[in-house]
Amino acid sequence: MALELAFKISGGDFSNAGKASSRIKKVLKQLNIDAKSIKKIVVAIYEAEVNVAAHAWKGEVKATVGEENILVVVSDCGPGIENISLAMKPGFSTASKEVREMGFGAGMGLSNIKKNTDELNIESRKGEGTTLTFRCYY
Amino acid sequence: MKVSELVKKYELKVFAGEQGLENEISGGYVSDLLSDVMGTAAENEVWITLQTHQNVMAIASLKDLAAVILVKGLEPNEDTLERSREEGIPLLGTTMGTFEMAGKLYADLAGS
Predict the structure, then answer these.
(1) Which of A108, A115, A117 to mutate to test the interface with B (most CBs of B within 10 A)?
(2) Which of A29, A97, A132, B65 is least buried, going by the fewest C-beta atoms within 10 A?
(3) Looking at the domain A3-137, which fold is it?
């Protein structure tokens, strides 16, 4: 049976970025998912949360915890990503100076997500928002 | 080496997270880029940084780090302290710079 979890994120709210990944980490631990898989999933979800906080106006994380894998959908209302392949390039960033000063926005987010997931799909519309869908097998 | 031994040896300030002082240290990581730490640091490592905001403790918790050391006498934000307490991960401080602190920790761990 799949377990559904949902979290809201507000743009600019870095204090709540990490809530979803932290909660999902606890749930996966309780389900005795292997530690290595949990680590990868947590990195991917955290980066996605930070992306929403750094770039979008608002968004949400929805996770479906299944028996063999976890499916995560992170959707936001925001500026969208103009060039997805460029955004995937390590080091490329459109983050503001303030965000960078916090140590975020180094252009590693999406590549960290790619590295730690088994399936990743990004859909984006300029001026409307972005939906990230990824899956990790345990 | 335990976090408590590191604290004693280098007279580190313990800002919060005393519950985790008996954590065993497996290594260290030095970076001020949070995604770099997120992608690279490993469990039970000590993270040396100059970032003082609460996301530092969020990452330390998500990555199961042994402790965080703030360098150059930097003070953590109030919500960072709170997060350290909640997560039970020691938040430490030193007046040393990153280079010096990392060098000492490296020498200790390489020799143990």
Answers:
(1) A108
(2) A97
(3) Heat Shock Protein 90 (3.30.565)
